[in-house]
Write a structure and sequence with these properties.
mainly alpha, 69% helix, elongated
């Protein structure tokens, strides 16, 4: 069993060891979107904001009516 353990340790020692602190990759610069794409992004954000406000209003209204029923 000692020979087997010794052989295992030698095999393991021969494997390439991972770097302790791998070099960090620089982030790739992302170009700004063109005017049409930015307009579409702004439209989607506005719709999401409006939907969120509607959902919040609905939740508040439901809670208010629940409290009034009590």
């Amino acid at each position: 069993s000692m020979l087997l353990l010794d052989a295992f340790n030698k095999d393991r020692a021969s494997l390439p060891q991972p770097l302790a602190n791998p070099p960090s990759l620089a982030p790739l610069p992302i170009p700004p979107p063109d005017a049409r794409t930015q307009e579409m992004i702004n439209e989607k954000l506005k719709k999401a904001e409006d939907l969120g406000e509607c959902m919040i209003y609905g939740i508040v209204a439901a809670l208010f009516s629940y409290v009034l029923e009590r």
